[in-house]
Amino acid sequence: MAVRAHTSDRSTEGVANVAAQLIRWPDLALKRTRRGLGFRSGGREIVRMPGDHTVELLLTTAVIDRWARVLTDCRRVTPGRDAGWVTMTIEGKADADLFLSLVSVAIKVNQASR
């Protein structure tokens, strides 16, 4: 099943490919919003895909603080606009693989924080 974010005219293939993979994850539920795609885990939004190769992820403040050096060195991951969130640019397979790994972490830490 192909998924396309409803955002701008620029290519969103990176985000669309990642979204197509996340749809198959049993712990995630797809949610379409006026700003793009999102995914929930246990009723909590943990992934936002506003498009244009940009994704947002709820890693939690604790994980961001613990991994600050690694995330900063990555340069693809930046602080998000909301507390506990990071923003990431997906422009290739390596970026997509990193993001999918971080989504796995986000699922676990958000389940543990309930």
TrEMBL record:
InterPro entries for this protein: Luciferase_dom (IPR040841)
Domain of life (superkingdom): Bacteria
Domain Luciferase, residue spans: 43-106
Protein name: Luciferase domain-containing protein
Organism: Streptosporangium canum
